[in-house]
TrEMBL record:
It comes from Thermus islandicus. This is Uncharacterized protein. The lineage of its organism: Bacteria, Thermotogati, Deinococcota, Deinococci, Thermales. InterPro entries: Quinoprotein_ADH-like_sf, WD40/YVTN_repeat-like_dom_sf.
Length: 634
């Protein structure tokens, strides 16, 4: 048998003098002592039972540690039943394996380099090829996964060696490890920590494999892997909505182009990926097609419940009308139920509808409606539905108003104005519902004075807490910046999230206005606000940006709530890790430079999952190119 392997042999036990009972087997000293690292791993059957005047054939499996010295060991195989002991000589010859890697545990320290935050590192090991290996002449080297699958981000130098089959061959090999990229046609990527792998040696039809373990050690920030999904999916460029479970599996909604023609319709797909980038599931949302003129706005949101079921929110057209479809599906694509928001027209603009699942399994969605035939301005809606059936539980509308100046008779008119409730939706640990939006009139606070319907006014942002029982408003807060007349601007949310303990509500977005003591630095700055989740009190706010158009487009927290991750969208986009104690955006704990990967993105969701918050995902789009997803080392 070879070092680090097992070997089997058979032995027959026969009952003598009517013996009945169990008979364990063991190794005992013979002419040589039993070496450490050699043992009986198992027997079949187990336990071994003998009956009077009967025999049993036993298959014995020996195990030899990789560190066991080669040589011949003359030992004793002992069978003992009660006071009866039988022994037979057993000779075990241990030889070196024909292919060996030393060390078999390869540890590589990764470093962050380059504008795109790629991680890279290398480790050197020795490779031995000996008789009786069947390899000869030029042998190709390759690293594969434990099941033979391809693994991205790994390469060997040299990639081939010459083997003399008559002697022991020794080689020095360097394994290079880099952030896995989509340019590789791979089944999965490496991940931080221990990666079980196999070194494959191939010469013609002859293949030998040896197990190795790659231990990746890296300090944040950095890119673990980045996948793009155009070749399989035919997707237009845009960040896609994602959700992740507690195990780090991430699910998103992509679009598949049905034909390579202008304005050809799209089919929405669900794609599920493991933390190492393996595809777990992919399936179309059967029966739903997306018009080709606005595909980006069609993929509204995805969410997961505690059983792993997926809720997909899609905007499309039915009989010439814009509708919103909420479908609950399993991870294999089976549909549980579907509801359609109709007959009002769903907005197809940059405002993002959302879906969220509460701790009790109830599903919530926020969206905007516009009754164009009745010339009613857009208004926001939040719904609560049964998770099991999709049945409506309650519905809450958000409608802001303004008032005209007095006419000569002193009369005024209050009228509805544009209101959105689609820029953030989250459910707290206690089931409370939080929603965010934008308004061009007074919703919760009197921010707007008298004005006529056609007057140009600034847009304001708002957040609200709803009672999950009936959707009643627990508190609502509205905010707007300052600009000298006659200039107007906007302040709007893009996303909201609760700290892990549910005590504070964070909002990220953008503004073209001043928020004293902060002055707008360019066309638009990122806006960060923190509210007390119980009372709605504004606890803190920050502006962040430079001379160009900037924004904050996504956020997530470490499990202990000490740090918040912020997606900074600008000409030079990045992910920032910031202390929640200081909220010092100018001096973050680290900055992950995303390069062009987030270019032009108005909203870019960020998802954190895992018991230790070890899985951080950010979808991306290029200025021109496919949908993509990044896993970032936090």
């Amino acid at each position: 048998m070879t070092q680090g392997s097992t070997a089997t042999f058979q032995v027959t036990l026969t009952s003598q003098n009517g013996f009945q009972g169990e008979v364990p087997l063991s190794l005992a000293d013979g002419q040589d002592p039993v070496p450490q690292g050699l043992s009986i791993a198992s027997t079949d059957p187990s336990p071994i039972s003998l009956f009077p005047n009967a025999s049993v054939q036993v298959t014995v499996t020996l195990s030899a540690d990789a560190q066991l010295a080669p040589g011949t060991y003359r030992l004793t195989l002992r069978a003992q039943g009660g006071s009866v002991v039988q022994e037979k000589p057993l000779t075990v010859q241990v030889v070196q394996p024909p292919v060996e890697v030393h060390p078999s545990l390869l540890e590589v320290q990764m470093s962050n380099s380059g504008h795109y935050g790629f991680l890279s590192g290398s480790v050197t090991f020795r490779l031995f090829v000996r008789p009786p290996s069947n390899l000869s002449n030029y042998v190709l080297l390759e690293v594969r996964g434990p099941n033979g699958e391809s693994v991205g981000g790994l390469s060997l130098n040299p990639g081939s060696v010459y083997v003399d089959p008559q002697r022991e061959n020794t080689y020095t090999i360097t394994l290079s490890v880099t952030s896995g990229g989509a340019q590789e046609n791979v089944a999965k990527f490496w991940v931080p920590g221990d990666n079980p792998l196999r070194l494959r040696l191939k010469a013609g039809q002859t293949v030998e494999e040896v197990p190795i373990t790659l231990r990746v050690v890296a300090s944040p920030p950095g890119l673990v892997w980045s996948g793009r999904y155009m070749s399989d999916w035919g997707v237009k460029a845009s960040p896609f909505p994602i959700a992740a479970d507690s195990q780090g599996n991430v699910f998103g909604m992509l679009l598949h182009l049905t034909a390579n023609t202008t304005y050809a319709p799209y089919i929405p797909y669900i794609l599920g990926l493991a933390p190492d980038g393996r595809v777990l599931t992919k399936f179309p949302l059967e029966g739903i097609t997306i018009p080709g003129n606005y595909p980006v706005e069609a993929r509204k949101a995805v969410a997961l419940d505690s059983q792993g079921n997926i809720y997909a929110l899609v905007a499309t057209t039915v009989s010439g009308r814009n509708v919103l479809i909420l479908r609950k599906v399993s991870q294999s694509g089976a549909t549980f139920w579907e509801v359609q928001i109709d007959p009002a027209d769903v907005e197809w603009n940059h405002h993002s509808s959302r879906v969220a699942v509460g701790p009790e399994g109830r599903v919530y969605l926020s969206y905007g409606l516009s009754n164009y035939p009745q010339n009613v301005p857009p208004y926001g809606v939040v719904e609560a539905r049964e998770g099991a059936t999709g049945a409506l539980i309650w519905r809450r509308e958000f409608i802001a108003t303004r008032t005209t100046p007095p006419d000569p008779q002193g009369n005024t008119t209050t009228y509805r104005v544009e209101t959105h409730a689609m820029n953030g939706l989250v459910v707290g640990p206690d089931g409370s519902v939080y929603v965010a939006g934008e308004a061009f009139g007074n919703l919760f606070e009197s921010l707007y004075g008298a004005s006529n319907p056609n007057d140009s006014v600034s847009g304001s942002g708002w957040v609200a807490k709803l009672d999950p029982a009936d959707g009643s408003i627990v508190w609502g807060r509205q905010f707007i910046g300052q600009l000298p007349p006659p200039y107007t601007g906007s302040a709007y949310p893009v996303d909201i999230a609760l700290t892990p303990d549910g005590s504070r509500l964070y909002m990220v977005g953008g503004t073209s206005m001043n928020f004293p003591p902060y002055t707008n630095q360019g066309f638009q700055d990122g806006l960060l606000m923190v509210f007390d989740a119980q009372s709605g009190t504004l606890l803190n706010y920050k502006l962040y940006g430079g001379p160009s158009s900037d924004g904050l487009g996504g956020l997530g927290f470490t499990p202990d709530g000490r740090y918040v991750y912020l997606v900074y969208t600008s000409r030079f986009p990045a992910v920032l890790k910031v202390s929640t104690d200081t909220l010092d955006l100018q001096n973050p704990v680290w900055t992950y430079p995303a390069g062009e990967a987030l270019w032009g993105v108005w909203r870019n969701p960020l998802v954190v999952s895992g018991a230790g918050g070890e899985f951080v995902y950010v979808p991306f789009s290029l200025a021109s190119g496919p949908d993509g997803l990044q896993r970032i080392l936090p």
